[in-house]
From TrEMBL, chain A:
Residues 177-288 form the Phospholipid/glycerol acyltransferase domain. Signal peptide: none annotated. Its main location: membrane. InterPro entries: LPCAT1-like (IPR045252), Plipid/glycerol_acylTrfase (IPR002123). Belongs to the 1-acyl-sn-glycerol-3-phosphate acyltransferase family. Keywords: Acyltransferase, Lipid biosynthesis, Lipid metabolism, Membrane, Phospholipid biosynthesis, Phospholipid metabolism, Transferase, Transmembrane, Transmembrane helix. It comes from Coffea arabica. The chain crosses the membrane at residues 89-107, 113-134, 146-166. This is Glycerol-3-phosphate acyltransferase 9 isoform X1.
Automatic annotation (TrEMBL), chain B:
The lineage of its organism: Eukaryota, Viridiplantae, Streptophyta, Embryophyta, Tracheophyta. Keywords: Calcium. This is EF-hand domain-containing protein. Residues 27-62, 91-126 form the EF-hand domain. InterPro entries: EF-hand-dom_pair, EF_Hand_1_Ca_BS, EF_hand_dom. It comes from Coffea canephora. One of its GO terms (molecular function) is calcium ion binding. Pfam families: EF-hand_7. SUPFAM superfamilies: EF-hand. It comes from the Eukaryota.
Length: 388, 175
């Protein structure tokens, strides 16, 4: 019995060491606040009294949690494309709808393709000369390229009949600041870019998108990362820091969720943007689903299909709020800062918060969560064994 | 009804309801079907282990591997039948049966000391040594009148959980 008692004390010391590790380590797993604080837990009431066979055999709390996760879970909900309510069909509405489809596909779509093509012609005929001929005059070249990128983004937005309402003061180009926004689709970037030429940090994509990334976006000063590489994080963190130090660089736009979410929820923000020691300016984006669902479900469609879907709908209507810049409060950790900014953005855009890391779309949760549960169980059993 | 197409007919719903002994309402069965189709990504008619594990809350659960053995590859009818033990209307005996099946991993109707040690291992992980597990289990078994060599059957489990207030309910979201 005494042996068990000394083990119990040792675990408390180990727990203390683990919490010390939390704040200093840059490991991916220790990146977030305790999930148990958010998840509904039926077995919070710690059972007391002497341990009997029934208590040991009773796995019902754990089983219930597992069955609950099978039936419904907040993570999958974030990435569900929620279809809009179907209309109440009747004999009058159906022909109207058919006419709408014809107008969208046969009138609007060709017009939009023409607008986009004209835009690209103008853009390329200005961009290529500027890029090659002004090689020596960097400042002027940068300024012109900035304007041209804003121009082509405006053409893109026009090609979906984008109706964007910007609220709040326009971002000013100052050093030592980053912009963070919630992420629904790659068009978030285009919508924000048409107003201000941001530098962006993105995942490198294949195909024509990748080509655009490596040519045009390079000129606004973009940073590329690769989700699947573990060492990548340090390299990216260093490049982020370098970018912010430069007074001449375009303001950096970061999507801390790391993945596209369906514009009803926000997943946890990665703390990378919040530990750079600079001002964070939150931007909230909310799309109006009545016109089109702008969520890019990358598991279900390619970006080209997504763009085509946007170009054959009536309009893309959204609100963009530029919110008050935030700084790290004294005594606040980067994770708490990230959560605070996520709260500000979620409240403004009317999104619900969930405690999951967006990257769980691509990988399994780390064993640390399970270990925490196991530790809680083991300690509870051993403690009750000591009670007489 | 084996393949997960997007519509359920009234006949299908009633058949599933019969199969689970009316423990779920028709609305709940429709919701469960939507969930089933959501998890079963390529409309195969069953949910693979990988697809279950893509739900992080499930993957984090210490008993996920044991449950996976029980739910992997089930078609929709059996899926609902499995979950029916977690319905609010399920009887204590049904809930105890699910618990028994989780322990009885070789499905021979008997739960040995070793089976119980293994479940304890899943639940406590590396935070309890082998010796501690055996000591704890041995002690509570002894107090309940069993020994380390005892083999427990379903009836023994029902006796252990007699009059217990087992909270084992899941709510099916009905929009």
């Amino acid at each position: 019995m005494r042996k068990l008692f000394t083990w119990g004390r040792r675990s408390a010391i180990e727990r203390g060491e683990m919490s010390k590790l939390k704040s200093s380590s840059s490991e991916l797993d220790l990146d977030r606040p305790n999930i148990e604080d958010y998840l509904p837990s039926g077995s919070i009431q710690e059972p007391h009294g002497k341990l009997c066979l029934r208590d040991l055999l009773d796995i019902s709390p754990t089983l219930t949690e597992a069955a609950g996760a099978i039936v419904d879970d907040s993570f999958t909900r974030c990435f569900k494309s929620i279809p809009p309510e179907p209309w109440n069909w009747n004999i009058y509405l159906f022909p109207l709808w058919c006419m709408g489809v014809l107008v969208r596909y046969l009138v609007l779509f060709p017009l939009r393709v023409i607008v986009l093509t004209v835009g690209w012609i103008i853009f390329l005929s200005c961009y290529i000369p500027v890029h090659f001929l002004l090689k020596g005059h960097d400042k002027l070249r940068k300024k012109l390229e900035r304007c041209l990128v804003e121009l082509i983004c405006s053409f893109f937005v026009a090609s979906w009949t984008g109706v964007v309402k910007y609220h709040g003061p326009r971002p000013s180009i100052r050093p030592k600041q980053v912009f963070v926004a919630n992420h629904t689709s790659m068009i978030d970037f285009i919508i924000l870019e048409q107003m201000t030429a941001f530098a962006v940090i993105m995942q490198k994509h294949p195909g024509w998108v990748g080509l655009l990334q490596s040519t045009i976006l390079e000129s606004v000063g973009s940073i590329w990362f690769n989700r699947s590489e573990a060492k990548d994080r340090e390299i990216v963190a260093r490049r982020l820091r370098e970018h912010i130090e430069g007074a001449d660089n375009n303001p950096l736009l970061i999507f801390p969720e790391g993945t596209c979410v369906n514009n009803h929820y926000t997943v946890m923000f990665k703390k990378g943007a919040f530990e750079l020691g600079c001002t964070v300016c939150p931007v909230a984006i909310k799309y109006n689903k009545v016109f089109v669902d702008a969520f890019w479900n990358s598991r279900k469609q390619s970006f080209t299909m997504h763009l085509l879907q946007l170009m054959t709908s009536w309009a893309v209507v959204c609100d963009v709020w530029y919110l008050e810049p935030q700084n790290l409060k004294p005594g606040e950790t980067p994770i708490e800062f990230a959560e605070r900014v996520r709260d500000i953005i979620s409240v403004r855009a009317g999104l619900k918060k969930v405690p999951w890391d967006g990257y769980l779309k691509y990988s399994r949760p780390s064993p640390k969560h399970r270990e925490r549960k196991q530790q809680g169980f083991a300690e509870s059993v051993l403690r009750r064994l000591e009670e007489i | 009804m084996g393949n997960a197409s997007s519509t359920l007919t009234q006949y299908d719903i009633e058949e599933v309801q019969r199969h689970c002994n009316n423990l779920f309402s028709q609305q709940e069965i429709v919701s469960l079907y939507q969930r089933f189709c959501q998890l079963d990504r390529n409309a195969k008619g069953f949910i693979s282990a990988d697809e279950f594990l893509s739900v992080p809350e499930f993957a984090m659960n210490p008993l996920s591997q044991r449950l996976l053995k029980m739910v992997d590859g089930l078609n929709f009818k059996d899926f609902v039948a499995f979950l029916s033990a977690f319905s609010a209307k399920a009887s204590l005996a049904q809930k105890v049966e699910v618990i028994f099946k989780v322990y009885d991993s070789d499905c021979n109707g008997k739960v040995t000391f070793n089976d119980m040690i293994q479940v304890l291992q899943d639940l406590a992980g590396s935070f309890m040594s082998d010796q501690q597990r055996e000591e704890v289990l041995g002690q509570v078994l002894h107090e309940a009148g069993y020994t380390k060599e005892s083999v427990l059957l379903l009836d023994d489990f029902i006796k252990v959980f007699d009059h217990a207030n087992l909270k084992m309910e899941v709510e099916v979201p009905v929009d």
